[in-house]
Amino acid sequence: MGESKVENRFKGSYLGAIFLMAITAIGPGFLMQTTVFTQKTGASFGFVILASLVIDILVQINVWRIIVASGMRGQEIGNTVLPGLGYFISILIVMGGLCFNIGNIAGASLGLNVLFGTPIEAGAIISGIIALSIFCFKQIGKIMDSFVSSFGIVRILLAVFVAIAAMPPVGEAVVKSFVPDQIDVVALITLIGGSVGGYITFSGGHRLLDAGIKGIKFIPQATRSAISGILITGVMRVVLFLGALGVIVHGHFIDPANPAASVFQAAAGNIGYKLFGIVIWSAGTTSVIGCAYTSVSFLKSFSKKVDEYYSKIIIGFIIFSTIVFVMVGQPVKVLVVVGTINGFILPLALASILVGAYNKKIVGEYKHPVWMTVTGVLVVAIMGYMSVRTFINQFLM
């Protein structure tokens, strides 16, 4: 009975953590990347989605379990494993988070432009103000959980409607998901980086800690929550993929300046175009919130003052991201590139977590399953190799 009461007490927090991780991952970049890579590889992109989902689940169950078992944030685990490592990872994640948030602001501004014809710069400022207003309330956690969960559900339902309207070749997509004509390594690392890379790796786990969920007794629920979050991102990715594939095979034009919008418009006309505006605005705004919240949580290692001024620092983070975007522009280019950037952070962050799983100062009496460690190490090796290969191909050749 006592255990049931504990479960009910934290039910909202688990749901909030699930949606914070999932909906933060399903940002504007997620929409753009899915369309761009579907156009490039066709039905074979289904294989990349399937492979990325498997890797995403392996990453998240390792990270969430060890964070909850230890009661320590990712950077604290890193510093215990190797003095200074947590600080280094924090710097990388905050920098990556800023890049992602600029992309998120870009997406939100595109959404308002589609819906109301709002100039991109003005749309960025309006969206930034709406996002930062969440952190002006005392009950930040509950308000944030409700906001991202509600808009997340709306986003998925709208995308399902568009996918059905696009009439995709589902049979071909299923076959090519297991027997692809080609495997795009850049697409795979970008998807993984955009789904569980950088700050997203730790967003759900840190949210659980902030809700007071820590200790070995919470591990089973934390594991289920991690898997649920990834499955939500998987559903959205598949739905968007099918919508884009349907539009492409029927010969519709995809505008390189706004590829995701082209899919929605081709599938459902002007209504679809307006639905895209709702989807990408909500994707951008909720991702701004999740990105800022998690990125700033990594600054707590540097000073106790961060806890004292947590909401104000988050607001500053959002304001800075908005200003940079207004000055730089180029929303679509920013959205596609930021996922690749976060893919470089994942191998190092996950490696530190896995080493921490075998340090009693970190996890106490918790015994991490061997199969999770082995698969986690494989992910580190694969992502490390692909990150180096991608960097060489894109920047040195």
Kindly describe this structure:
Helices cover 82% and strands 0% of the residues. The longest helix has 39 residues, at 259-297. The protein is an all-alpha fold and 397 residues long. The N and C termini lie far apart (62 Å). The radius of gyration is 20 Å and the shape is globular. The mean pLDDT is 85. It has helices at residues 2-9, 11-25, 28-41, 45-70, 74-81, 85-116, 120-133, 140-165, 170-178, 185-196, 200-210, 219-249, 259-297, 305-308, 310-328, 331-343, 345-356, 360-363, 370-396.
Measure the end-to-end span. 62 Å
The H-and-E topology, N to C, reads as: HHHHHHHHHHHHHHHHHHH
The gross shape turns out to be globular
In terms of DSSP E residues, the strand content is under 5%
- Overall mean pLDDT stands at 85
Number of helices: 19
Radius of gyration: 20 Å
Proportion of helical residues: over 70%
Biggest sheet descriptor:
none
Please tally the β strands and state the result. Answer: 0
Structural class: mainly alpha
Low-confidence stretches: none
